[in-house]
Amino acid sequence: MKEEQQKQIVKELIEKGKSQGSLTYREIMDALQGIELSPEQIDDIYERLNHMGIEVVPEPVELEALEKEEGEAVDSDLDLSIPDNVAIDDPVRMYLKEIGRVPLLTPEEEIELAKRMEQGDEEAKRRLAEANLRLVVSIAKRYVGRGMLFLDLIQEGNLGLIKAVEKFDYRKGYKFSTYATWWIRQAITRAIADQARTIRIPVHMVETINKLIRVQRQLLQELGRDPTPEEIAREMDVPVERVREIMKIAQEPVSLETPIGEEEDSHLGDFIEDEDAQAPADAASFMLLREQLEEVLDSLTPREKRVLRLRFGLDDGRARTLEEVGQEFGVTRERIRQIEAKALRKLRHPSRSKKLKDYLE
What we know:
Helices cover 66% and strands 3% of the residues.
């Protein structure tokens, strides 16, 4: 039933997307509300919509929030300085210096270029993109330290900027920088989701993780301590089980080859106990027991020794039935039982058993 319901909802989303030309994230998430889907299943739905040529675009409310967040800082305070702990080559420095020379556009100039783009003016597209390259750098700096090189973040952000140039509609009333910020963030977060982690996380889940991290930081400042999952759940207005699931997904895998110590001559794997491995003392005791057992078995006749080896699986760990052993010797199972009983009586004799008693205590 759930599978049929999912197919029907996806079908309706595709029809709606084709009629509108696009879908917002809010429309998709509202449609999927109430259906239990794994992150992979949700990501598959996004991929299917993308395959059908249906763009997923920001909600007007999102753009309004971005405009409020960015304010005039989008244009006036774009910082092209290099982030701390980031090593870059001279060509990158030259690139940053070059884009810093490109003058920013006024809202009137943006509208004029957008009108020219509608007429197919490629030069207008190029100028609008170039004037906002420093916006990409400013946004990319916020994602340094998440598993991708600074230059790669800039490159992915530039792809988002190009998409924004192609999709920009000046009639909506938003500044281009506000609209482009959304697309640049989307491009960078998608790249981080695809490339930065050892285990890929769906894009929408990366955004959810980022939201959880922001809430954690906010509560840490307010409470003066690490917030509990219950406190985070109340702030995010989601079930506490959902918060625990997000926190589990957000965990980064750690390599067993991670260097440990100042000399870095040992690795994390050296300090993790192998629960399946036998303790050295037990292994040594087992070897001595095996040697004593072989010595005791050698005191039996060859037939008795062979019967016990087969019956108790001393060679390969598989114990044979009386029937199986009888077939190998060409005698009845009753005869094998008699041979086994006689051999065990011999082993119980003090002259033999005392050699093994210490290992049984």
